[in-house]
């Protein structure tokens, strides 16, 4: 069996540098304007011409985003950011639960076919 000797290490720096990137090298992407948001929704097939405004209003009412009325741009809230981060991880689970519920509700009919 191999033995490992403990060796003394240099103490950790309590204030490590946060970033080595030059100042001003990065900045957040611009916020979506209402027109940009509608065009993104159309490109992903979300809603119809009649329901796009309703979809946007629901997101605002549920607290996923806020709208800057002056600039007509949308900002995600912390809740909206968490939802968009976790959604890819939750989607397989939710689809599995949906399939399970479908099976439970329709098992007799499915077995007869």
* Beta-strand content: 5-15%
The first-to-last residue Cα distance is 62 Å
Radius of gyration over alpha carbons? 25 Å
Which parts are unreliable, with pLDDT below 50 for 5 consecutive residues or more? none
Gross morphology:
flat
Overall helicity = 40-55%
Q: Please, what is the average pLDDT?
A: 79
Number of strands: 2
What quaternary form is this?
A: single chain
Structural class: mainly alpha
Number of H- or I-type helical stretches: 3
Order of helices and strands: HHEEH
Largest sheet: 2 strands, antiparallel
Q: Main sheet: which strands, in order across? A: 1-2
In short:
The protein is built from 3 helices and 2 strands. By secondary structure, the protein is mainly alpha-helical.
Notes on the protein architecture:
With 113 residues, the chain is mainly alpha-helical. It has a domain at 34-106. The chain contains three helices and two strands; from the N terminus they run H-H-E-E-H. The chain has helices spanning 34-43, 52-61, 78-112, and strands spanning 65-68, 73-76. It has a two-stranded antiparallel ribbon. Strand 1 and strand 2 form a beta hairpin. The chain is flat. The model has no long low-confidence stretch (mean pLDDT 79).
